[in-house]
Amino acid sequence: MHCPFCRHDDTKVSDSRVADDGTAIRRRRLCPACERKFTTVEQVVLTVVKRSGVVEPFSREKVISGVRKACQGRPVSEAQLAALGQQVEDQLRASGKAEIASDQVGIAILGPLASLDSIAYLRFASVYKNYESVDDFITEIKAMRRNADSFDVAVPATPEPRKAAVGSAQQPLISTP
Q1: Is the CB of residue 33 less than 8 Å from the CB of residue 8?
Q2: CA-CA distance, 31 to 82, in Å (whole number)?
Q3: What is the distance between the alpha carbons of residues 67 and 72, in angstroms, rounded to a whole number?
């Protein structure tokens, strides 16, 4: 580590502490050349490997942005979205891997999102799991009902088909003389 003051190439660690709930290490360093102290923070960089092979740093804001689209028009606050983003990042970091496949990020989002809002979950899952028909939605809703104990919110009910009233006739909008 270079000293930020005199650029000396060898510094000594005088103190190390865990920071940010164990996700980083804060180190106090001393430069033997200029005798000035400075602090460094070391953190494991979590990277995402996309299907195309492109590697990019994990972005909590990107997770929140994707979930925000699924939650559009739903009673979900920004604070809840931020908490979900933090929960997903914590879960991915807990895996102990520095590189995470993009599909693992999607899987990590699905659980907390299902607990947050079942409709937003279905919206997100429809894109993430690449639904191709209404049958895919029905299958997912049935799976949600089977696992209803793990959800904190109500699972959407399947709408009853509408039945025509017997003996009702439509009145014409324009009457003729």
Answers
A1: yes
A2: 39
A3: 9
